């Protein structure tokens, strides 16, 4: 039997006397038959049981049975013939218990299917969805049977409220009547729309008509290939797609299907998640936990495992995936063969199998084995396509009065983008993603012709040209004296009116305070986390003021805000919102910006006239990467008139500094934290380019920047070229090979760091973090540290080999390579969460700390939630001439 941490679900064949069980049946508005069977004591008595007893609505391990329980249900007859089924339960399984669930299906209760494996590791779900169910088993049947096993010592009930949902979705359009894939190799196959495959769009909405899973769009950086697993007995693929959709949207409660696209074994391609694609952006799906905001997911109907019941990936499906994914890679600038990082994790290719991102067997051994050839074919198709590039702004005729950070999306064959103003190259970028800046503080006012030029590796070029204007910031609106600000202390100059969050680890809040970074006057409000602060969980920081709005309209809210974030801020958010009297959080502005300058936000609140609302100004840090901050000042809420103007700082052509100092709190009124604001969805923004760890350093020349004439000199963002490995290295680290007991200071707590036989070379390495099966009672830091003084005026390079691993559902755990400065400042060089289970190479130039005494920090943080995380380190070099 295959054991897996948390849960593995498999379809099994066993023969027993038949019972009906206790299923219930309902028919949806689209004539989908829905049946539900629930575990109850009668079923337990009617089956074979050892080491289990029924407790509450679940199963409890009984001692003494060596902590092992086994339970086989009688064969259960469904109310109707189904096309698939899935399992759900109400409470996540407790820590320290390994479980396996086996299922089998039959048409007549006599002849049974092979054992099939379903996954319940939660890795194929939307970010934040509870892990209380399996993926959907696609397979025809009238009978099913479960075998459940568990091993552990937890007294808690397992599979609380266990239910099997089975569906018949055949009353709808037939796949045989739908579009067939194109025969041309480099022609993109037709995508069958949701309307064509019969999606019931009412399933996406709750009883109040609200969309359950609001749509948000991203530029995908990777493509993940999945399979649905289960059976290959799929009588009608379109019905199977409808069944997966219902199970995801309704049974699991997601509000939509998790995949962006679904492919059947005949090569048809079906649109998945509602919203599809807009320009060069795709709707965020729920298919690869932790990477949904950086990728698109495509699932193939069927089981492609090498075990019994699996089949080879059909040629028609493989060909459709190759041509379709090649076209999508061309659209989004994804090189199928090129490595790169997303969400802090390095991946070797642009097109990947689901198992590359977690401990899952998806998309099956037989499909995964085909990916190398498929990537090569996709690359061939892409090289036959003409190069193209795209950027959304500036549009023709647009006036820019504030800095614009822009990303150029380019075909995988394009290796360099040049930015030209009035025909002169002013900046170039040869590293993806291609990021550029247009800043009116650098360039004089006037009309410019912008050309973005892409150059391929073989010298082909493609250009896109727009005309725009640099202008001075628009003056503030002058208001008549008919507006009385309904908010107390909107200027932030007093200590009244606003309620602040304080640091609280239980409800995950951070401190907000008055600060001396004003838009006008002497003070503003600071929300977020101080620069350089280390946090391992989400932190909500806000200022709030509750007010009853008059019935007089219009009602206008005006807020000046100054946003900032450090590199790689993750899924942080900057908010201006209202909270209704019933607690509903209504974002008015949900963004992530790093302009470091004051901007005005205006919202019409007339729809809330006569209601009591709370004005919410805040920042959410997700605990990953760099921190995010927002200052707020000059907040006005006016009814029946135009707001009073507030002073605007004099515009200057000098660019703002690149860093924001940590705010100095002036005074924080005592406040009681209110309910934590739920995490909202990531907005469409252009991110600054984060540092990307690569397995091996490759020397790259610095980009050439040609300054314009007669325009003033632009200031492109400098790019530091990687440094080639020197011939000789004077290693400043003692015992960098980990072969002796010297040099390193190790932690000693519930997750101690220690020397280990897991080595990159030689006999030993260092382990930080927790081994599988270890109980971690809360946040625990495990590290190896060594203090060294760097020579003055000399370059210094840190090289580390590391092997990252984690168990399913690691929560907010982190793996670090960092330095600690003499003043105690923690500076992450690598902050990631990976499960590569192989040795990776990391290199960082730390010449900026020449002449300083620093501590090299190699470590792992476990947050005490979900699966544990560990990191092995070996062959550490700190090289100086």
TrEMBL record:
Any one Gene Ontology MF annotation carried by this entry is: zinc ion binding
Which residues does the UniProt record annotate as the domain Peptidoglycan recognition protein family?
Answer: 189-341
Please identify the protein, giving its name as recorded.
Peptidoglycan recognition protein family domain-containing protein
The UniProt entry's sequence similarity note says: Belongs to the N-acetylmuramoyl-L-alanine amidase 2 family.
Which residue windows does the record flag with biased composition (Pro residues)? 690-702
InterPro entries from the xrefs? Amidase/PGRP_sf, Amidase_domain, Ig-like_fold, PGRP, PGRP_domain_met/bac
Q: Where is this region: Disordered?
A: 642-662, 687-723
Annotated Pfam families: Amidase_2, Big_7
Q: Which PANTHER family match?
A: PEPTIDOGLYCAN RECOGNITION PROTEIN, PEPTIDOGLYCAN-RECOGNITION PROTEIN LC-RELATED
Where do the N-acetylmuramoyl-L-alanine amidase domain residues begin and end?
A: 210-364
GO BP annotations, alphabetical order: peptidoglycan catabolic process
């Amino acid at each position: 039997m295959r054991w897996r941490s948390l849960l593995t679900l498999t379809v099994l064949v066993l023969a027993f006397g038949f019972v009906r069980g206790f299923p219930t049946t309902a028919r949806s508005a689209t004539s989908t038959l829905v049946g539900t069977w629930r575990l109850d004591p009668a079923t337990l008595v009617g089956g074979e049981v050892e080491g289990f007893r029924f407790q509450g609505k679940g199963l409890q391990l009984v001692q003494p049975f060596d902590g092992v329980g086994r339970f086989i249900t009688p064969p259960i007859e469904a109310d109707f013939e189904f096309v698939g089924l899935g399992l759900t339960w109400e409470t996540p399984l407790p820590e320290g218990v390994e479980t396996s669930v086996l299922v089998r299906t039959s048409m007549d209760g006599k002849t049974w299917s092979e054992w099939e494996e379903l996954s319940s590791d939660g890795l194929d779900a939307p970010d934040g969805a509870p892990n209380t169910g399996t993926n959907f088993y696609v397979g025809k049947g009238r009978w099913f049977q479960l075998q459940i096993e568990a091993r552990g010592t937890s007294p808690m009930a397992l599979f609380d409220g266990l239910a099997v949902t089975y569906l018949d979705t055949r009353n709808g359009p037939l796949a045989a009547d739908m579009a067939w894939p194109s025969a041309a190799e480099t022609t993109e196959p037709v995508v069958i729309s949701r309307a064509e495959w019969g999606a019931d769009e009412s399933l996406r909405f709750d009883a109040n008509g609200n969309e359950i899973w609001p749509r948000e769009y991203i530029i995908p950086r990777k493509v993940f290939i999945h399979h649905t697993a289960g059976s290959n007995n799929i009588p009608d693929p379109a019905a199977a797609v409808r069944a997966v959709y219902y199970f995801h949207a309704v049974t699991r409660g997601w509000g939509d299907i998790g995949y962006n696209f679904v492919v059947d074994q005949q090569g048809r391609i079906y649109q998945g998640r509602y919203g599809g694609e807009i320009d060069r952006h795709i709707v965020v799906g729920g298919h690869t936990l932790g990477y949904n905001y950086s990728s698109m997911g495509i699932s193939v109907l069927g089981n492609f495992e090498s075990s019994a019941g699996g089949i080879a990936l059909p040629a028609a499906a493989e060909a459709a995936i190759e041509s379709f994914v090649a076209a999508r890679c061309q659209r989004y600038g994804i090189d199928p063969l090129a490595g790169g990082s997303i969400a802090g994790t390095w991946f070797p290719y642009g097109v990947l199998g689901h198992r590359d991102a977690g401990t899952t067997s998806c998309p099956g051994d037989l499909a995964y084995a085909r990916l190398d050839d498929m990537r090569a074919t996709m690359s061939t198709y892409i090289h036959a396509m003409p190069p193209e590039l795209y950027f959304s702004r500036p549009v023709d005729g647009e006036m820019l009065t504030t800095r614009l950070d822009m990303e150029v999306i380019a075909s995988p064959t394009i290796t360099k983008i040049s930015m030209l103003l009035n025909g002169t190259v002013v900046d170039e970028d040869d590293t993806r993603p291609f990021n550029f800046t247009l800043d009116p503080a650098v360039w004089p006012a006037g009309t410019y012709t912008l050309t973005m030029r892409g150059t391929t590796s073989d010298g082909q070029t493609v250009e896109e040209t727009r005309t725009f204007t640099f202008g001075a910031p628009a003056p503030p609106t002058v208001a008549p004296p008919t507006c009385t600000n309904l908010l107390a202390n909107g200027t932030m100059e007093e200590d009244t009116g606003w309620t602040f969050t304080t640091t609280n680890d239980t409800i995950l809040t951070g401190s907000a305070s008055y600060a001396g970074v004003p838009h006008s006057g002497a003070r503003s409000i600071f929300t977020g986390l101080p620069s350089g602060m280390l946090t391992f969980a989400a932190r909500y920081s806000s200022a709030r003021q509750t007010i009853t709005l008059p019935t007089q309209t219009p009602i206008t809210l005006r807020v000046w805000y100054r946003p900032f974030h450090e590199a790689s801020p993750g899924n942080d958010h900057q908010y201006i919102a209202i909270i209704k009297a019933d607690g509903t959080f209504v974002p008015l502005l949900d963004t992530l910006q790093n302009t470091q300058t004051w901007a005005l936000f205006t919202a019409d609140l007339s729809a809330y006239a006569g209601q009591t609302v709370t004005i919410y100004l805040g920042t959410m840090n997700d605990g990953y990467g760099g921190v995010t901050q927002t200052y707020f000042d000059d907040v006005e809420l006016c009814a029946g008139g135009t707001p009073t103007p507030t002073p605007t700082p004099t515009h200057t052509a000098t660019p703002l500094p690149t860093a924001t100092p940590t705010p100095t709190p002036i005074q924080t009124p005592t406040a009681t934290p209110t309910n934590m604001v739920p995490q909202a969805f990531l907005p469409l923004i252009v991110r600054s380019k984060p540092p990307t760890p690569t397995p091996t350093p490759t020397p790259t020349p610095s980009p050439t920047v040609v300054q314009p004439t007669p325009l003033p000199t632009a200031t492109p963002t400098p790019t530091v070229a990687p440094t080639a490995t020197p011939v000789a290295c004077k290693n400043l680290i003692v015992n960098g090979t980990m072969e002796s007991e010297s040099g390193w200071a190790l932690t000693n707590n519930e997750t101690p760091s220690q020397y280990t036989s897991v080595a990159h070379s030689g006999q030993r390495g260092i382990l930080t973090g927790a081994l599988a099966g270890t109980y971690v009672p809360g946040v625990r830091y495990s590290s190896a540290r060594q203090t060294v003084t760097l020579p003055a005026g000399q370059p210094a390079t840190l090289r580390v080999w590391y092997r990252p691993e984690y168990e399913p559902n690691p929560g907010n755990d982190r793996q670090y390579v960092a330095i600690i400065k003499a003043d105690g400042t923690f500076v992450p060089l690598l902050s990631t969460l990976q499960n590569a289970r192989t040795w990776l190479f990391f290199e960082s130039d730390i010449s900026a700390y020449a002449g300083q005494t620093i501590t090299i920090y190699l470590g792992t943080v476990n947050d005490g939630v979900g699966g544990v995380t560990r990191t092995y380190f070996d062959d550490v070099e700190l090289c100086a001439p």
